[in-house]
Predict the 3D structure of the following.
Amino acid sequence: PMKGLQLVPQSSEVPEWAETYTYKVFDQVGMAKIIANYADDLPRVDVYGQEITARVKDIGDSYGYNIAELRASTAMRTSLPQRRAAAARRAIEVKQNQIAMVGDAQHKLYGLTNHPNIGITTGLNGDWANAATTADEILSDLNALYNAVRLQSKGVHTPNVLAIPSTQYAALYSKRLSDSGGLTVGEFFIKQHPGLRIEDVPELSDAGTSGVSLAIMYERSEENLSMENPMPFNQLAAQARNLELVVPCLARTGGVAVYYPLALTKAESI
């Protein structure tokens, strides 16, 4: 499954022709107050932050039909096979998913796992899949990750997604807590936080530093982060090349932008 494209909200606000785009890492300031009629001293609420400029890159592939296929299609009045177009679209989506998860270092595009604006929560027990790691220790780690977002944002952001590798996901739903009525750690944690969902993300098994496992706890919202796709999948006009018609396919992406860093945290070696 395209987990990267599911975990990161998708956006197409940047125009197709742009080579770069600039966004701010926001910090909200200012407070509202009770005012009298005809007041002219309304408090100013604003946002400010560091401006970051990111690049926009093309993603492309192609498919085609040879002369024999075109003749047969014309003679039999049938449509050309669509599997090749679907495969071309799938290939581009796979690349977009990869960029959403880990970016593209060569072209200076960031992904969810390696974005520099996402902090790391340390001091956890970790090693959830180890038989010696207890359910209570795992629950302690989960609470620490959840509270890290709540505390660092002073209660502004509430996590609604926890993304973890498959092995750790299995441990979460196999180890049962004592005095919980037989609930697993995952079931108990979801019961504590009904608005949160836990995602099984195989790509996170080696997404941390030096190939260690990675967990990400965050508030999924377009206001907090997004993947900029100025041009979604687009098929250009067919081009005649030798004895075939080739259909170029194109998409454009600017990678992942994080606007409110305090809405996210991650942890390694869980």
